[in-house]
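Long-time lurker, first post. I've been practising inverse folding by hand and with some scripts of my own, and I keep getting stuck on stretches where the structure tokens seem ambiguous. Below is the full token string for one chain I'm working on. Before anyone asks, I'm not after the true native sequence, just a reasonable design that respects the backbone. If someone could post their per-position residues I'd love to compare against what I wrote down in my notebook.
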């Protein structure tokens, strides 16, 4: 049974399409790069065999999170304390937009190519704060 489970995961997560590109929209619509797939499978196996509360798992999680924050900070020229890791881009965008002080009549400019998950919080701000949403058609 476990072999068929992992075969299923590999089949649907797999794909070798992205070789030398960095693509961030992997949460919903695209394939997962091979390196990430292998890491995910390893973690799933660890949880399957040892459980989520295995000794040292929480400590390792926070070490990995800290390392990730430092790597992202180095990539964009920031301090790790300025980096927040969220569950997904939509969640992060909602944190940022709802944390900003908008006044009635403030303008937010977006494009016609924007993902629906980005448009929804803008519509919410329009309804709650009275901001103006301008769309550049691409």
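-- Answer (accepted) --
I ran through it position by position. Result:
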């Amino acid at each position: 049974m476990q072999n068929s489970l992992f075969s299923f995961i590999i089949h649907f997560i797999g794909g070798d399409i992205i070789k030398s590109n960095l693509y961030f929209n992997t949460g919903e619509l695209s394939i997962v790069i091979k390196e990430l797939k292998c890491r995910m499978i390893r973690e799933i196996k660890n949880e399957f065999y040892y459980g989520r509360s295995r000794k040292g798992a929480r400590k390792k999680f926070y070490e990995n999170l800290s390392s990730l924050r430092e790597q992202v900070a180095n990539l964009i020229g920031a301090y790790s304390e300025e980096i927040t890791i969220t569950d997904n881009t939509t969640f992060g965008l909602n944190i940022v937009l709802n944390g900003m002080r908008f006044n009635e009549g403030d303008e937010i400019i977006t494009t016609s190519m924007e993902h629906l998950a980005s448009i929804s919080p803008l519509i919410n701000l329009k309804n709650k704060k009275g901001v103006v949403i301008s769309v550049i058609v691409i």
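A couple of notes from the structure itself: The mean pLDDT is 78. The longest helix spans residues 57-76. Happy to go over any region you disagree with.
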